[in-house]
Design brief:
- The structure is a single chain.
- By secondary structure, this protein is an alpha+beta fold.
- It has six helices and 16 strands.
- It has three domains: about 60 residues, RNA-binding S4 domain (Structural Genomics Hypothetical 15.5 Kd Protein In mrcA-pckA Intergenic Region, Chain A); about 80 residues, Pseudouridine synthase (2-Layer Sandwich); about 160 residues, Pseudouridine synthase (2-Layer Sandwich), CATH 3.30.2350.
- Helix content is about 20%, strand content about 30%.
Length: about 325
């Protein structure tokens, strides 16, 4: 097996520091990952094994040899169709269809996206396309939300991506069809989100004093619709929403809080018998992760991953454009 490595050439500014500090400052290597490299990989200075407490001189090359990993044994491979949107040595991005859970849980022990990813890893290893690895889910989507899911192929890029997100250096954009038209048409929803009842999955806008966490969603109206239902003209809108934080159900909660719940959202949207917005031609919330952009933590190149909303959302938009719903 060919082990993945990560190199760093030291400078004069690094000489006052020990290797563990240099790797943390310059490469963002976490203590957890450095320990894994020491235990199951290696740490080299100029090609020779070294210690994290050792110092350096200008021009030394530090090499982290990544630990050997494999898919989790408790997630069996399954034939789950995957649409690959992007792949390199460190990341895999796939398109998750609506209705497919991301990972196994008590309610869905199998038949998940992760089962399909494990199958792909095993097939790629068997066919010589790549080495086996442990998949790290970097972003998760609700079962009925579709779109881009990013997987890290090692713990280093998982940690590095989390640091990028914490610094606001990751762009996550969703397309949403909402009931109503937001006013103003573009803005930021800055309202804390919490879980009022820990026994329920439902989230809500609550004050930070009541346990809410700071949450920010930026939205922009792309298109508006006036749809006749009987004698009434019912407003709808297509929005692009960008997450500035990543709370559970954040976009769904925030849009509902401004009076524009996502069409088809059974948890936060209008009731199914609502005379204006009930019984829409979509069986789930009209929300899809359509764009993910970030600077690659290893190659430092800009990565932009894009996809279109799913067929059911596009069909809903086509019906709205006709201006008439049953």
């Amino acid at each position: 097996m060919i082990r993945k490595t990560l190199d760093y050439s030291t400078t004069k500014d690094d000489e006052p520091y020990r290797i563990r500090t240099i790797l943390r400052m310059r490469l963002g290597v976490s203590t957890r990952f450095l320990r894994a490299c020491r235990n199951d990989g290696d740490l080299l200075r100029n090609g020779v094994h070294t210690r994290t407490v050792d110092g350096v001189t200008e021009g030394d090359v530090l090499t982290l040899v990544f630990p050997e990993t494999a898919p989790p044994e408790d997630v069996p491979p399954e034939e789950i169709p995957l649409e690959v949107l992007y792949e390199d040595e460190d990341f895999l991005a796939v398109r998750k269809p609506p209705g497919l859970p991301v990972h196994p849980s008590k309610g869905h022990p199998s038949g998940t996206l992760l089962n399909g990813i494990v199958r792909k890893i095993r097939d790629d290893e068997r066919d010589g396309r790549s080495e086996a690895y442990e998949p790290h889910l970097i972003n998760r989507l609700d079962r009925d939300t579709s779109g881009i899911v990013l997987i890290g192929k090692n713990a280093y890029v998982q940690d590095a991506f989390a640091d990028l997100a914490k610094r606001g250096a990751v762009e996550k954009t969703y397309a949403a069809v909402v009931c109503g038209i937001p006013e103003p048409p573009e803005g930021v929803i800055d309202r804390p989100i919490g879980q009022p009842d820990p026994s329920l999955v439902r989230r809500a806008v609550v004050s930070e004093e009541e346990g809410g966490y700071p949450s920010r969603t930026r939205y922009r109206t792309i298109e508006t619709f006036r749809v006749m239902r009987g004698d009434a003209a019912i407003p709808f809108a297509l929005l692009n929403c960008t997450l500035e934080t990543g709370r559970t159900h954040q976009i769904r909660v925030h849009l509902a809080s401004i009076g524009c719940p996502i069409a088809g959202d059974a948890l936060y949207g209008p009731a199914s018998d609502d005379p204006r917005y009930g019984a829409l031609p979509i069986a789930r919330q009209a929300l899809s992760a359509v764009r993910l952009a970030f600077d690659h933590p290893v190659t430092h190149r800009r990565v932009v991953i894009e996809t279109l909303p799913d067929d059911d959302i596009r069909n809903l938009l086509n019906e709205l454009k006709k201006g008439l719903l049953k």
